[in-house]
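W.,

You were right to be curious about this one. When I first looked at the sequence I had no strong expectations either way, so I just let the prediction run and decided to look at it fresh. Below is the sequence, 326 residues in total, followed by the output.
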Amino acid sequence: MMNSDKISPDRSINIFYCLIEMNNLSIHQDIQEFLKSKNRSERLSEIHCSALAHMLQMSEEVLEELDLQKYNTSDQGRHRLIPAVRNCRKARLAQCGLSETHYEVVASALKSNPSHLTELDMSGNKLQGSGAKLLCAGLKSPNCRLETLRLEKCSLSDISCDYLASALKSNPSHLKHLDLSLNMLQDSGLERLCGFLENPHGGLQTLRLEWCSLSQVSCYYLASAMKSNPSHVKHLVLRGNNLQDLGVKQLCGFLESPCCRLETLRLEYCFISAVGCEYLHSALTFNPTHLRELELRGNNLQDLHVKRLSDLVENSHYSLETLRWS
C-alpha cells in the first residue's frame, strides 16, 4: 500500500515519520544507502522519492545538482522529487510534464532566504499563462540569485514573454545566461523581452535564441536594446532564424558600437548572402577588438563570399580567431 502512486506526497511523508517513530527504519536506510551509492540505477518507488526529497530538503549540506532524468523512477516519482529544489544549486527539470503546483514549488525555492539555486533548466515543459506567472514571481524576488535560466521549447506565448521581461527587469543583476531557443517568440515576443536587455543594471552575458521564428525586425529590436546596455553581452546565438542580409545590417549597428563586447556571434541557417558578409566585414573593420568567433554555416556561402572576412582571421590587428561558413 505504501508503494501505491495513489498516496499523495504529503501522506507519504506522514507514513515515513510514523515508521521512524515505530523504529522501522527500512525506508530511511534504503535512502541512506541510495545516497551513499555511486550506482543510481536502482529503481525508486513513489514513497522512496517522497522520502528522498524530504531528506534532501532537511540536509544541512546543499545538494550540488538535482537532475530528475538521472533517477530511475516513474514520472510521478520524479514529480515527488521536485521539492528538493529548495536545497540545491543546480536544478534540471527538463521534459518532466510540470504542472502549476510544481512551478509554485520552484518559485518558492527562488524566493527562499537564502535561495541556493544558481542554475535552472525547465526546458521542454509548457510554460504558459498562470504557470509562467508563478515562476516569474520567483524570478522577481530580491532573494533570487539565479545565474543560468534555460527555457528551451517551453511554448512561450506573448503573455509569457511579458511576465518574463517584467520579472527579469525587476531583478536583473544576477542572470548571466538565458536560453529561450525553440520557442515561437517571433518579433512581437522578442520586442517584449528587450525591455530587460535595455536595463543598465543587467549583467547578461549569453543569450540563445535559436529557431525562434525571428525576422530582420527582431535584429532591429536586439541591436537597439544592446546598444543601450552593450558592455555585458558576450555570446549571441541566433541560429535558424530568417534574418537575411537586412537583419545582419541591423546587428552590425551594434557591432560597430565602441562599447560592444560581443565575442561570439552565431548566424547559422539565417539566409545570409555575400551582401551580409560585406556588412559584417565593414562592422568588424570599424570595431576590430572583440569578436573572436563568427558562425555562418548553412547560409550557402562560398569562399569568394567570405574571403574578406577570412582575411581578418589572418590579420593580427583583429580579434577574430574562428570563422566557419561551410
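Here's what jumped out at me. The CA atoms of residues 75 and 96 lie 7 Å apart. And, maybe more interesting for your project: The first helix runs from residue 9 to 21.

Coffee later to discuss?

I.
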